[in-house]
TrEMBL record:
One of its GO terms (biological process) is glycerol-3-phosphate catabolic process. The lineage of its organism: Bacteria, Pseudomonadati, Pseudomonadota, Alphaproteobacteria, Sphingomonadales. It comes from Sphingobium cloacae. This is Glycerol-3-phosphate dehydrogenase [NAD(P)+]. GO terms for molecular function: glycerol-3-phosphate dehydrogenase (NAD+) activity; glycerol-3-phosphate dehydrogenase (NADP+) activity; NAD binding. It is found in: Cytoplasm. Residues 172-312 form the Glycerol-3-phosphate dehydrogenase NAD-dependent C-terminal domain. InterPro entries: 6-PGluconate_DH-like_C_sf, 6PGD_dom2, G3P_DH_NAD-dep, G3P_DH_NAD-dep_C, G3P_DH_NAD-dep_N, NAD(P)-bd_dom_sf.
Length: 323
């Protein structure tokens, strides 16, 4: 059992910890030399997952060549870097994609990008309501594991399941990915409502109407409705729209408090995927003729295209119609 984790941000480190805590020797690829050093020397990742002691069974490396002997690879980099990262991975090893986003320019989901970058590697997607720090602490978590190959899905599930970490299987890869990508944009909207003091009714409305947008877009791209209503869709939407533990929600809260997007996004080390997904999603939705007014509103705020009161008024002034 030789798992590798590519990407040592909060989520990659938490997943490495999940695997290593059960005795597996895990190799963790990190971009930053100081992360490699901290994991190997101090069994910690203060840059991305502070205050969580890591298992000595995690060995970090900065060389992708060190992943050549792995029999399973978890890919956990930011979505916009997935193509270049996966292209460097060893050929033919099953890839579990854990990034949430849509590639700019191509509008492709991560599984489609990975298939282009590594055509001979089997692909699965792991997505759901999973704050990294809670998983690293061993708190109870359920997640969707989506894979077109049922045998591979069962083998991966047996490998990653733990008493407090329950994968649920699906063959709807597209559906699992769309939920994870779209919820990040909607979490920004809910953060805006929090920051601007719009109240909890507004948040509930954004979650419900945002879920309607996710469903419209998902169905147009071939997702199944039950996947969107499951852990990787509605489950993750509820989690991310409810707490400042979410980087996307926090970004939205800053926007709602009146801070300009450019200032909030400048010099940040951690990734708020929704900020990258929003314009890509708007473009993809328009191209498919899918209406996504909440996503459009988030884009307007991220681009500083209109003042917040005007964006809120525009959403509230939409024509009354059937739910
Ligand atoms: N943090 C969480 O709770 C969860 C995160 N995810 C997803 O996992 C993915 C990674 O997020 P986090 O681990 O939270 O990241 P993070 O925000 O903790 O850290 C940023 C990561 O980006 C990497 N990075 C920066 N520039 C890069 C480049 N040019 N090439 C490759 N990597 C680069 C850094 O090395 C670091 O690993 C995202 O798509 C996120 O949506 C999914 C579930 C939970
Ligand atoms: O995807 C996540 C939880 O499932 C993490 O959300 P944030 O990226 O908004 O922190």
């Amino acid at each position: 059992m030789k798992a590798g984790v590519i990407g040592a941000g909060a989520w990659g480190t938490a997943l490495a910890q999940l695997l290593a805590a059960a005795g597996e020797q895990v190799r963790l690829w990190a971009l930053e030399p100081e992360v490699v050093e901290a994991v190997n020397r101090d069994h910690a990742n203060p840059l991305y997952l502070p205050d969580i002691p890591l298992s000595p069974g995690i060995e970090a490396t900065g060389a992708m060549a060190d992943m050549a002997d792995r029999d399973l690879l978890l890919v956990v980099c930011p979505a916009q870097h997935l193509r270049s990262v996966v292209a460097q991975a060893p050929v033919g090893v099953p890839l579990i994609l854990c990034s949430k986003g849509i590639e700019a320019g191509s509008h492709l989901l991560m599984s489609q990008v990975a298939q282009q970058a590594q055509p001979r590697s089997p692909i699965a997607v792991l997505s759901g309501p999973t704050f990294a720090s809670e998983v690293a602490k061993g708190l109870p978590t359920a997640i969707t594991l989506a894979c077109a190959d049922a045998d591979l899905a069962a083998r991966i599930a047996a490998r990653i399941a733990r008493p407090a970490f329950r994968p649920y299987l699906s063959d709807d890869v597209i559906g699992a990915e769309i939920g994870g990508a779209v919820k990040n944009v909607l979490a920004i909207a809910c953060g805006v409502a929090e920051g601007a003091g719009l109240g909890l009714n507004a948040r509930a409305a954004l979650i419900s109407r945002g879920f309607a947008e996710m469903t419209r877009f998902g169905l147009a791209r071939g997702a199944r409705a039950e996947t969107l209503g499951g852990l990787s869709g509605l489950g993750d939407l509820v989690l991310t729209c409810s707490s400042t533990h979410s980087r996307n929600f926090s970004l939205g809260k800053g926007l709602g408090e009146g801070h300009p997007a450019a200032a909030l996004l400048a010099n940040r080390r951690t990734v708020a995927e929704g900020a990258f997904t929003a314009p890509v999603l708007r473009e993809a939705a328009r191209a498919s003729g899918v209406e996504m007014p909440v996503v459009e509103a988030v884009c307007a705020l991220l681009e500083d295209a209109a003042p917040l009161p005007q964006v809120i008024d525009a959403l509230l002034a939409r024509p009354i119609r059937a739910e």
